[in-house]
Amino acid sequence: MRLNKLSIAITLATVTSIGFVSAAQANTVIRVAYGNQPGEPVDVAVNQWAEWVNEASNGEIELKVFPASQLGSETEVMEQARFGSAIISITAYSNFLDSVPDLAVLDAPYLSEDFETKLKVFDSEWFADQMAQVASSGYHIVIPNAVYGVRHLLTREPVNSPDDLDGVGVRVQNSQMYVEAIRAMGATPTPMSLGDVYPALAQGMVDGVENPAAVLFGGKFHEVVKHLSLTAHMHTVAPFVTGQAFWDQLDEEQQQILTDTGQQMAEYLAELVAEDSEQALEKLRSEGVEIHEVDTTPFRERAAEQIPTAFPQWSDGLYDDVYEIING
User: Model's pTM, two decimal places?
Assistant: First the structure.
């Protein structure tokens, strides 16, 4: 009898344990990866997104955040997503150049003068067609319209026209779009990692760097070069991307929760970026940086002429067509 009671107890314990495991496994855990540091707008917004998702799903979906490239580079994380990992990553539209070439135009310089007009493109038929091609390439864009920031030039000397950039080496990220954008503006693009920029500026290897004001301040590049020219050459909007295979494993309710809370997060991020940008400009000014207003017309004209020819893989008239969608 004692043995039977023991057997029953073990059986009940086992069933209970299996129940707990099944409940735990029923929860969907999704890793969210990004290169931004803790405390930056993207990090703050993603952590808030995780709370909203948890609340909306009653704890059935958990977003685990991995800032500072903990899970690898953008390219590495994108590959993990494409092969089915439960992962969402912020990336750049120019990173679709090989798989969905026309999407890369969204990172082209001088497509818009502000984010309000830039965001119009995501409601267009053109973008809906691009989304279908993204799915065919093995990806799914969860959030298409995450505002990332306005990019300006921080240089040794003031920049007021493309002529001022003749022979000026400007650091860019290792991306064909950013290389061509800076070249179209009149400078000599020099690809390197952001972590190498400070010593490169200090040693005279480059004469400037482009990025949103908050990134420029965070990198302390103002300690070396003191002229910020408000070229506003890119109003960068970034997508949060996962793999289509993983997305298809989620049920419709889970997909809707991620989509709806994702849009809520995008709106919150836009507010954070705007606040952060204004604060960064004031901090740069307080550190002795001279801030110069710039007539962007000659830069825009050069971009419209040179960027389309730099990307022969694009559809005919793509730059002009997307410019018209945004500004029409």
Answer: 0.86
